Amino acid sequence: MSSTLHTFEQAAAGAAHDGPQQETVRTSLGTYNRAFATGRERFASWSEARHRARAVKADAIAHLGEYLVQFEAGITSRGGHVFWAETAADARAYIVDLARRRGVRAVIKSKSMVSEEVHLGTALEGAGMEAVESDLGEFIVQLRKEPPYHIVTPAMHLRRAQIAALFQEKLGTPAGADSAEDLTMAARHYMRARFASAGMGITGANFLIADAGMVAITENEGNARLTASLPPVHVVLTGIEKILPRLTDLALFWPLLSTAGTGQAITCYSSLIGGPRQPGEADGPEEFHVVLLDNGRTRVLADHDRRDTLQCIRCGACLNVCPVFHTIGGHAYGTTYSGPIGAVLTPLLRGEKEFGHLSFASSLCGACTEVCPVEIDLHHHLIENRHDSVLEHVRPLPERIGMRAFRWMMSDAARYARLAKLARHLLRFKNGWVPEGSRLDLLRPWTASRDLPEPPPESFREWWQRTRQQRGAHA
Amino acid sequence: MPKGRDHILGRIRAALADRPPGGLPEDVAGTAVFAPIADPLARFQAECEANRTELHLVTAANEADCLTAVLAREKEGGDGTIYVQDAPALRTLAARLPAATQTILQFAPAQPAGIASLTLCEALVARTGSVLISSLCGGRAATILPPTHIVYAHARQLHAEIDAALLAARSQSPAASLYSLITGPSRTSDIEKMLVLGAHGPKRLTVLLRTD
Questions:
Q1: In this complex, do A251 and B188 lie within 8 Å of one another by their Cβ atoms?
Q2: Residues A169-192, buried b or exposed e (16+ Cβ, 10 A)?
Q3: Which residues of B touch A48 (CB under 8 A)?
């Protein structure tokens, strides 16, 4: 058993039994679901919107090289720099070197899942720099030294009282200041000084606009705007797949992302940034860098059947509707991207061997596919990933033996009838003597947490045979 | 450094050797996706109310009085400067304000201690009740740093849809390094999904919209 699988099983079982946390997460997801339902009604046709979005993203991915070159030309024409990072290590090295060259001591970060993917915070701290997350949810989980729980709502699993206690301990906020307003203002106050003193601001990107040569960033708090405005250097760290062909595509993608992400008609700040401070501008950073990350994405691109996973706009909707995510939460996955999209992407980006088990953490109900705003066929990809896992022999030995035996049994009708009858009798016999789910139960791995209905004394096949005469008589 | 570029672009080319046919839909967010807006101004008003933008419809006759009242309220919150974008339209408007109000105005990029900013905008969007600004509207900080952002706009700048507003901004101010579509005051719901205004950006967004 791989260590990632073992960790996953332990963490998933722990989270599934953490009642209070599940309650918090369910309340949050309930609020989301209501807002999302209302948000969709703002569209004349939500399904038409998804359809067009898929077509645009599919085109963007199909012409990825051309669009990236066009995007790069726009950035460099304004004096910005574009760095193409093949790996997470390349991206880290480029940003740490840049920070060193600029003599940066403190970095202010705005929410970016790609920076989680490459572990940028750890790299900056390793180089002796302070790196503070400015998004409220990210800041909260950073203070707890935890990864984000959810790609859109990082602190979704925490209750207000936990956050109040955390702020009291780490920021010295007064004991009574525990309303959402108090806590938000405490973070605002704390962060203001950091925005002013940071030598570098790092943001992610939601879209890269090819024809405009600009980066589009979606947010509600204004922290990304401040990160891109006050420090003398602004770095955007993003994946190559975030491309959109045209500026005008945002008229669809901004409302689409906001609706699917939070249920909002549009987020508070939908910004486009194309370079450092230009001649004639009052302020803005002296340097602007865009780091375009591959880190396995071109490998996914080469896989014709799974290329559509690169259409993902990271809205988090598939997490929000997933019954598995509802039960085990975001941390159990042990990956940057969790939920259905994480279970599909992680094995593709980081290997079946270590992460193939995530494809099995799904009931295949298809809610993710139904909700996806760019129509990624998520649950079918989970089945395809499972297929790969089997072909690559990364499934556990008992399962492989069991499946082989099952195939042997199913390949002969008479054999199936005999063995099924035997199994039925054994099961009825076992249930008569061994309490279900107890330690003596050989089927405990299944029955410890699931029902196994008692088989009837007679199979359908036997019943059919026995009653055939009667039916013949009536006919 | 160019090695990474060549490698990634090479891998993309190789991966897409079997590129599927098909192209871009021309009309991305047309009427099949969004119902047309009959009365953009009415829609803008309704959306502003929903997203908590404070909207004042003004004319040449009452705009100075309206702005005086808006600024007086900001002054009550504490002493400090109101940073104003150095634009002819705002200089003209400021000259019509009472002398006491004029003393707290400063035509300069916004600083951390400011209590408010007053800027122009590139365009307005009816569909979402949004204000589109650029970095040429007083700089980047002016529209995000102060606790209150006041926008002086004209109904001529109102577009029904986001794409039209973006294209207008790009043709008016092609050299801007930043555009931002602002929809209401800064907000967060990161703590138990409870809405709090003024997370990091302005707590109040006020729009004075000239309708004459």
A1: no
A2: eeeebeeeebebebbbbbbbebbe
A3: 32-33
Count of CA atoms in the C-beta half-sphere (13 A) of A288? 26
Q: Which residues of A touch B5 (CB under 8 A)?
A: 84
SS3 B141: helix
Tell me whether residues A84 and B184 touch, CB distance under 8 A: no
Structural domains of chain B ordered from first start:
40-210 (3.40.50.10420)
Q: What is the pLDDT of residues A42-78, one digit of tens each?
A: 999 999 999 999 999 999 999 999 999 999 999 999 9
Summarize pLDDT for A212-235 with one digit per residue, the tens: 999 999 999 999 999 999 999 999
> Model-level pTM?
0.92
Q: Where are the alpha helices (DSSP H) in A150-304?
A: 160-171, 180-197, 223-229, 250-262, 297-302
Residue A461 has a pLDDT of 84
Interface test with B, best of A71, A94, A207, A268 (most B CBs within 10 A): A268
pLDDT tens digits, A306-321: 999 999 999 999 999 9
- Residue in A62, A87, A116 with CA at minimum distance from that of residue A292: A87
Res. B145 pLDDT band, cuts 50 70 90: very high
CA distance B169 to B130: 13
Q: Give which of A210, A207, A165 is closest to A71, Cα–Cα.
A: A210
Neighbours of A353 (CB within 10 A): 14
What CATH class does A63-295 carry? Answer: alpha beta
Q: The tokens of A71 are what?
A: 């995007």
Q: How far apart, in Å, are the Cα atoms of A304 and each of A61, A64, A241, A352, A370?
A: 11, 14, 15, 17, 22
B 104-133 residues with CB below 8 A of A? 108-109, 112, 127-128, 130
Query: pLDDT, tens digit, for every residue of B45-68?
Result: 999 999 999 999 999 999 999 999
ipTM of model: 0.96
How large a percentage of chain A has pLDDT more than 70? Answer: 99
Q: Å from B61 to nearest chain A CA?
A: 31
Burial of B17 by CB count in 10 Å (0-12 exposed, 13-18 middle, 19+ buried)?
Answer: exposed
A230/B8 touch (CB, cutoff 8 Å), yes or no = no
Q: Which of A397-401, B52-56, B107-111 has the lowest mean pLDDT?
A: A397-401
Domain with CATH 3.40.50.10420 in chain A: 63-295
The H-or-E segment that residue A379 falls in is helix A378-391
Q: Smallest Cα–Cα separation from A224: which of B136, B175, B138, B144?
A: B144
Token code pair at residue B42: 């009415």
Q: Cα–Cα distance between A216 and A204 in angstroms, integer? A: 9
E strand or H helix at A38, and its extent?
A: helix A19-40
> Over chain A, what is the mean pLDDT?
93
The torsion of the CA quartet A38, A42, A47, A48, rounded to 10 degrees, works out to -170
Residue to test with chain B: of A97, A270, A375, most B Cβ within 10 A? A270
The torsion region of residue A33 among left (phi > 0), alpha (psi -120 to 50) and beta comes to: alpha
